[in-house]
Fold:
Amino acid sequence: MSKKKEMIILEPEGRICKEGFCSRPMTCPYCGGKGWFYGGRGLPESVCPDCEGTGEVIALVTIDWKPNIK
Structure:
């Protein structure tokens, strides 16, 4: 499970709509920031499936405002 260390204040401005933002880049925890894995036993290197070789990941957060139906 992800750990969240940033505070988000949500207040719609004007009409409600979908909105989103992304986090700062973070080192990929799966490959340790290398972007690849050594295959071992003569196998070629493999690109990290989580960061796709960049060594970093970001979180994309989408907010979808909806009416409060009671």
Remarks:
- The chain has a mean pLDDT of 85.
- The chain is about 0% helix and 25% strand.
- The first strand starts at residue 18 and ends at 22.
